[in-house]
Design a protein that fits this description.
This protein is an alpha/beta fold. It folds into 2 domains: about 375 residues, 3-Layer(aba) Sandwich (Rossmann fold); about 100 residues, ANL, C-terminal domain (GMP Synthetase, Chain A, domain 3, 2-Layer Sandwich). It contains 17 helices and 26 strands. The strands form 6 sheets. It has a 9-stranded mixed beta sheet. Strands 16, 17, 19, 20 and 21 form a 5-stranded antiparallel beta sheet that branches. Strand 5, helix 5 and strand 6 form a beta-alpha-beta unit. Helix 4 packs across helix 5. It starts with a helix and ends in an 8-residue tail after the last helix. The relative contact order is 0.09.
């Protein structure tokens, strides 16, 4: 079975049903989407060989579907690129991946062409242009089975800690992701919808195969991104709505509700991940939307699929469970190990490692990075966590984010959780700063609620009531917003860079 076969079967079962929407307007039925994907595949194979990489540099767009499935039908690999990166960063990825063809949105094509200042110039096609439409004018390719180990999705890490690495994900990897999603996370059918408010180059796009396999319509907001009011409106127009959202997006969605506990009737599920969902915010969101939440924990190297916090787990009042990332997903093994690769005792902190069909084969043209990440059949995630007696995993932090102060390990998330219970704190992120006496000290970047002036003394007292004194931040920096990437992750590297510049603390 190939990834294209998911669309092939759905198009045969529901040929005239709506497949791709922009807002409330249906653009393609399943039969039309299938036909266009196969026509594109025919064109691709007559211009570039099977196994080539095909890059997509675009905002969320209905064209993403035909580009993805056309590439897969041609037995080629999609290279989805975060369109919010700087053109030079996009160019670095392209020069590394060496795609045979680049499909770019009109807003990004000119800047991209200018950034590709090299002897090697790939083809750049502007999505929606006459040249683009010409690619779909030819005959349809006759689909054939794909090699399960063939590269299907070359996913470049977000680059928050340095130069991006390309995680090589095969047909088998993405099929394992899809089957695990359908087994664990959602029960989908042709009456469901997927709203692409989060980037299609990341988590939202990775869930497309699961929704397509069940005939669930694909909805791209007219804005092309996440506008809370638009999202809520679409939940009134489409049925059985599900979406992947970053925790910061969930918070904005809750705040956009016209009245508390007025979730739109069409909303069926919100799958959240990609960053920490703090317990306090989760409780508020549950009160506003009801039991629609499922949490997933994964990373680009094991996409969307390491653990999950089930919908029924969200009904529990145990903060330890709500603060966890749940239990191991179907089809994967998860362990928590020490520096020697030995399992740690329940409750102790170690590195989370995972194996299964969903785990990448390695990093593109990066044997050193591959050897560091994949050892003895296990993916070493770099995430620190603990496991309780029931198998629930609680993330502490990335191993690089742990603050070692005076010889003691301090996990930023624990400090962040404490500060977020303060009624005047809207957002917070904690990092370490070098210190001659202590090695590192804890610095808290805090965003106050609108109209509030935060006082250091009040924050200190609040922390001392909840966490050990040595974990208390030595300094608070008040910001209007935290720096985030397009996936909603806080850019801790940017915060550390701020610490290298003169800062004025506001008490």
């Amino acid at each position: 079975m190939s990834l294209f076969s998911l669309l092939d079967r759905t198009a045969r079962q529901w040929p005239q049903a709506g497949a791709v929407y922009r807002g409330t307007h249906c653009l393609q039925t399943w039969s039309v989407l299938r036909q266009r994907a196969l026509s594109l595949a025919h064109t691709l194979l007559h211009n570039v060989p099977a196994g080539s990489r095909i890059a997509i540099v675009s905002e969320n767009s209905p064209n993403y579907l035909e580009l993805m499935f056309g590439t897969w039908a041609a037995h080629q690999a999609v290279v989805p690129i975060n369109y919010k990166l700087h053109p030079q960063e996009i160019a670095q990825i392209i020069l590394d991946a060496e795609p045979a063809w680049i499909f770019a949105s009109p807003a990004l094509a000119d800047g991209l062409k200018g950034a590709l200042d090299s002897d090697w110039q790939p083809r750049v096609c502007v999505i929606g242009s006459p040249d683009y439409e010409h690619l779909f004018a030819g005959p349809a390719l006759t689909p054939k089975p794909a090699d399960p180990e063939a590269l299907a999705w070359l996913f470049y890490t977000s680059g928050t800690t340095g130069r991006s690495k390309g995680a090589m994900l095969s047909q088998r990897n993405l099929m394992a992701l899809t089957l695990s999603h359908l087994a664990d996370v959602e029960s989908l059918d042709e009456h469901c919808s997927q709203i692409h408010a989060a980037p299609m180059s990341h988590g939202s796009g990775m869930y497309i195969p699961a929704y397509v396999a069940r005939g669930a319509r694909q909805v791209v907001p007219s804005s092309g991104g996440f506008e809370p009011e638009e999202f809520l409106s679409l939940c009134h127009e489409h049925t059985g709505v599900g979406a992947f959202l970053a925790p910061t997006m969930v918070q904005r969605l809750r705040q956009a509700l016209p009245h508390p506990s007025t979730a739109p009737p069409g909303l069926r599920s919100i799958i959240y991940g990609g960053g920490p969902m703090y317990v306090q915010e989760l409780k508020q969101s549950l009160a506003a939307f009801g039991q629609v939440f499922v949490q997933i924990y994964g990373q680009g190297e094991s996409p969307m699929t390491i653990t999950w916090l089930r919908r029924e787990d969200h009904t529990r009042t145990d903060d330890a469970i709500l603060g966890s990332v749940g239990i191991a997903r179907t089809g994967v093994d998860v362990r928590v190990v020490d520096s020697q690769g030995q399992d740690v005792a329940a409750g102790d902190i170690g590195e989370i490692i995972v194996r299964g069909d969903v785990v990448m084969s390695g990093y593109w043209r990066n044997p050193t990075g591959t050897a560091e990440a994949l050892r003895d059949g296990w993916l070493y995630t770099g995430d620190m966590g603990s496991r309780d007696d029931q198998g629930y995993i609680t993330l502490r932090d990335r191993s690089k984010d742990v603050v070692i102060s005076g010889g003691s390990n301090i996990y930023p998330r624990e400090v962040e959780e404490a500060l977020l219970t303060h009624p005047d704190v809207s957002e917070v992120s904690v990092v370490g700063q070098r210190d001659e006496a202590w090695g590192e000290i804890v610095i808290a970047f805090v965003v106050p609620r609108t109209g509030v002036r935060l006082r250091t003394e009040a924050l200190d007292a609040h922390c001392l009531e909840r966490i050990a004194r040595f974990k208390r931040p030595k300094r608070y920096v008040v910001l209007e917003t935290l720096p985030k990437n397009s996936y909603g992750k806080v850019l801790k590297r940017s915060l550390r860079e701020m610490l290298e510049q003169p800062l004025i603390d506001r008490p």
